[in-house]
Amino acid sequence: MKLTEISGGVCAPKGFKANGIHCGIRKNKIKKDLALIVSDVRCNVACVYTTNLVKGAPILVTKKNVADGYAQAVIVNSGNANTCNEGGVEIAEKMCGLVEQYTGVPAGDVVVASTGVIGQPLSLEPIAGGMADLVAGLGDNSDAAAEAIMTTDTVRKQIAFSFTAGGRTCRIGAVCKGVGMICPNMATMLMFVTTDAAISSEMLQRALSADVKKSLNMLSVDRDTSTNDTFCVMASGLAGNRQITKPDADYRAFCKALNAVTTAMCRKLAADGEGATKLIECRVRGAKSLKDARLCAKAVVSSDLVKAAMFGSDANWGRVLCALGYSGAKIDPDAVDVVFRSSAGEVEVCRQGRGVAFSEETAKRVLSEQEIDICVTLGNGHYCATAWGCDLTYDYVKINGDYRT
Amino acid sequence: MKLTEISGGVCAPKGFKANGIHCGIRKNKIKKDLALIVSDVRCNVACVYTTNLVKGAPILVTKKNVADGYAQAVIVNSGNANTCNEGGVEIAEKMCGLVEQYTGVPAGDVVVASTGVIGQPLSLEPIAGGMADLVAGLGDNSDAAAEAIMTTDTVRKQIAFSFTAGGRTCRIGAVCKGVGMICPNMATMLMFVTTDAAISSEMLQRALSADVKKSLNMLSVDRDTSTNDTFCVMASGLAGNRQITKPDADYRAFCKALNAVTTAMCRKLAADGEGATKLIECRVRGAKSLKDARLCAKAVVSSDLVKAAMFGSDANWGRVLCALGYSGAKIDPDAVDVVFRSSAGEVEVCRQGRGVAFSEETAKRVLSEQEIDICVTLGNGHYCATAWGCDLTYDYVKINGDYRT
Predict the structure, then answer these.
(1) How many CA atoms lie within 13 Å of A82's alpha carbon, on the beta-carbon side?
(2) Using the beta-carbon criterion (under 8 Å), do A318 and B81 form an inter-chain contact?
(3) What is the ipTM of this complex?
């Protein structure tokens, strides 16, 4: 199947408009803090949320609103997570009410999300005050929406692809913010995907739930699962393909396009992890099971020791072996090979569980690049998995030592 | 039961001598790198080891040597973990052989451990060359042994207590190095406890296995379980008490003394965590089960976000709630209270899952101390647990960004 990257983010698929503004939740006036995505038509919708037992109030409201399988708009604020505070659910519901008041989309078809510090009251006032401007500016503004949901993100994260399903050209686009499902600052991972492919809510949920296992769940910035993680896909059906209602070739085409979006976003999220200077990708091959492959890959990118070594461009592969050993996967330590790879070349550091002689100079050069692959071959099966993370830096500590004040 | 702290470390109990020297494994000549603890008599012994599937070669040899329940000496080197290298088991066995050659203690009664970088060959030469000096200096030298097992530890860690069992005064002492069961630098947690209490190997193992669940397993510096963790207790029986062979009052007295040792060591290990400026103690009360209490306490001290906030003296209690939420414990978020406490006072920050107004000035003062208690009341049961950790600092990243080279 041909998959082509296109511009436009969440507005690339037919029927979607977006905008983002500064309404005043944040004190810093150059930082946008309110985003809106609206579809011309009612969409089929599917969501997945954080597994944290402490859940943001917006999640409770969104769950209720999408329970019927439909949604038509997304409203998101940054600067406050609307979590562990008084009256959070009521505020989230009022945000949906404002969308209805200003756009005509019923409040019960609105996905609502918040991101920022938790435990502080969220005032409706700036949001209500900003709605007229927000709605007036709705258009091909995925840029503004992507910017308005950022917290400590340093770059906007959006992407779009076109693909073919049922003989029709379909589009899928997304905006997201991080900097991880494993959240660096309680500011949570949010991702909103739009598509004009016609696909039933059931198949959309199936695609989403399957995809998240190999995309967002394989991403770690700091192993802290946030309270507000929300990953939502809305399908307008305006591409005109016959609706996808079963796991056929069209469904597989859609899943492939969705995975292209989520994988690209995982890489963007990891590369922009708080304080990060490097994207770390761990590719595990030869595992006994898919679960083992995933456990191993995730353990390696999650290890503070591996992350600190990558920051220092130090080929301390023993830490990779250590992480594999405590990952929970069934591994045979004597069958493990490890290679570090980047655009500057590659260096084999461990074969059959033992160190191999390597040039420290080459290793330093390979590890000094901005994208590092840690390639692990377990040698006791044929399953593979990839996980994404970033290095651990002084700036991570700096950002998080004084995030709130 | 009266428990009195005494001096002497591992040499406080009757029958134990120790020493530590620089033999040349480390390049830095002022750093000791070889330790020996020897008992006058054969001891009952019990050990617990890392759960990491990648295990240091010395662990394989120690396991074999203590399988019969007896040991009489401990030899430990720092500077090299003797793990994931060629011939590691043979080297570890030769280290035991050197102990036999120089002290007469049979090689099969020697506990052997190594700590340092993994994946590098360990040469027997400096060890063999140092044995004569090491043995000649055996005596009341717990200080030297504690120093010789240090890696990035900044202080020696030893302690001893006297207690009463079977009407006799018994003593228990220990040396250990860190800086965590959850290891900061692949350098591993090692702890060696001596006692002159008479206690069977079976009861010793039972006491050790029970204690580790509430002591070392509740400690985290960076969530990286090392490959070489070894926790060993040797009992000489020279105190003359009737041997403890069942779970009676004497056994409980011994367990209490053992827990005093391990708790003190956990605090020392956490306070000296790599780069740490603060000891973090999380006390959880009101949990539905002991397992839940432990999961919660451990999750809080393990969270990089909580650790970074503590470094910055930032009362970002939302991160504590977040960690409780993903800990895996069954909690009711709306029943959680959180108080930060230190020698400078206390500040309540969260009641029934909601933020309470507090003075930022007071919070800053409380959190600026070197020991911080995070007191969590879950409000859905009556189980308690305590976990220990440290803050996450620039120095942690610095130390681990360039540990190997």
Answers:
(1) 27
(2) yes
(3) 0.78
